[in-house]
Amino acid sequence: MKRILIVNNNLEAGGAERQLFYITRNLIKTSHVEFLVLEKKGEFVKRLEELGVKISIAASKKGWKLSREIRKYALKGNFNIVLAFLPTCNLACELSTLPIKRHKVYAGARNANPDFITNKKYRLYYWAHLLSDGVISNSEKNKEDILQINKLINPEKIHVVRNILPDISIDTTSAAQESDSPIRIAVAANYRPQKNLLSVLQAILSSRESITGKIFIDWYGLPIGTDYEKGRTFIKEHSLESIINLNPPTNDVLSKYAEADVVGLFSLFEGFPNSICEAILMGKMVITTPVSDIPMLLEGTQNILCASADSRDIAESLLMLSTMSKQKIAEVGTANKENYAYMFKEQNIIQQIEQIVKP
Predict the structure, then answer these.
(1) What phi and psi, each to the nearest 5 degrees, are found at residue 180?
(2) How far apart are CA 286 and CA 279, in angstroms?
(3) Residue 222 and residue 249: Cα distance in Å, rounded?
(4) What are phi and psi of 160, to 5 degrees?
(5) What is the mean pLDDT of residues 266-282?
(6) Are 291 and 114 within 8 A, CB to CB?
(7) d(Cα 172, Cα 297) in Å, to the nearest integer?
(8) Over 80: is that where the pLDDT of 277 sits?
(9) For 258-291, b where at least 16 C-beta lie within 10 A, e where not — what string?
(10) Pairing relation of β-strands 215-220 and 183-188?
(11) Which residues contact 235 (CB under 8 A, 6 or more apart)?
(12) Which of 50, 132, 219, 318 has minimal CB crowding within 10 Å?
């Protein structure tokens, strides 16, 4: 029987934590699974404990000391597999194999931050994958980044496994159907520089005469840094209230997507973005910047892929969208669901994970 120890920072509602929860609820059917976390907090604590999964707290929080604690925990509990998804815990788990390997380690690769290519400290995370028995990446782009930095790692050791997305049963027919109403774009992204709000506002300003009355953007997110206040000021100064509204975060993002005609993403960089995947599963058309594997995924479709995250390219894409009919937009969304939904099915991805993660 597999005995799997999963190490993570916490159990908050982040993308990595959600994936670990989906994986765990399947693995416990055939394996013993426990968690070792740096902080026992987050919405998945209760959900995992309801499944009977033990969650322990690590006394050490990083580096070599954490690696020694992981090694001791794994040896004492007779765990033959240690799994992590985030950089700090990946490194500690990989170091836990030293000096003599007593358990296998599988690391996740999910970070699209370009600093991982240029920053010496971050590059160490990718070099440490030499100590792992396998790397689970959620995008081809991430795999390419690892191979660019770590010339010694065997490419066959890096496995691309898409994110699990649960079946979405929400009614998506509630989007505005009136052909004369503006095309409604829903964006779910926190207000921070990576998400590129200020470039989107500049794009709206430069194309205002052509898209007013044709496009309306509802943006939902948590203010992080100064972009939210800068955005509000920009909208007020240039009277853009008829084209975009900055909303607080929502706990029901799928309903917001259902009410919209199009789902948008304008980030400078992303891991494999769940928002685009969710839109596809819901049968929505998307407009997005070329982040992660999205250009490859959308190749040959009639979704709108901005040439870059630059405001001029976003403006050009908004202009293109403004000329489309509601019927055509709905047809593109239907094709998305028919052609791509299978890629994110839970059971398909769990089978991939089980084939990779072996004692």
Answers:
(1) -90, -10
(2) 7
(3) 5
(4) -90, 115
(5) 89
(6) no
(7) 22
(8) yes
(9) bebbbbbbbbbbbbbbbbbbbbbbbbbbbbbbbb
(10) parallel
(11) 201, 241, 244, 246
(12) 50
| φ/ψ bin of 194: left (φ > 0), alpha (ψ from -120 to 50), beta (otherwise) | alpha
Three-state DSSP at 336 gives helix
Q: What pLDDT is attached to residue 169?
A: 65
Tokens for 335? 């094709």
Give the single-character DSSP code of 194: G
Q: Are strands 81-84 and 54-57 parallel, antiparallel or unpaired?
A: unpaired
Paired tokens of 277: 């995947």
Alpha-carbon distances of 149 from 114, 127, 159, 268, rounded to whole Å:
12, 8, 17, 21
pLDDT digits (tens, 9 = 90+) for 10-63: 998 778 898 999 999 999 999 999 999 999 998 899 999 999 999 999 999 889
- In the chain, the amino acid numbered 75 is L
Two tokens, residue 121: 């400290």
Tokens found for residue 118: 């240029």
Considering only 18-22, 217-221, 338-342, which range has the smallest mean pLDDT? 338-342
Beta bridge partners of 292: none
Give percent of the chain above pLDDT 90.
76
Q: How high is the pLDDT of residue 78?
A: 97
Give 70-95 pLDDT, tens digit per residue: 999 999 999 999 999 999 999 999 99
d(CA 98, CA 71): 9
State the Cα–Cα distance between residues 109 and 107, nearest whole angstrom: 7
What gap in Å lies between CA 106 and CA 136, rounded to an integer?
7
Chain mean position to CA 148: 22
Q: Which of 188, 203, 175 minimizes the C-alpha distance to 274?
A: 188
Largest CA distance in the chain: 68
Host H or E run for residue 246: strand 244-247
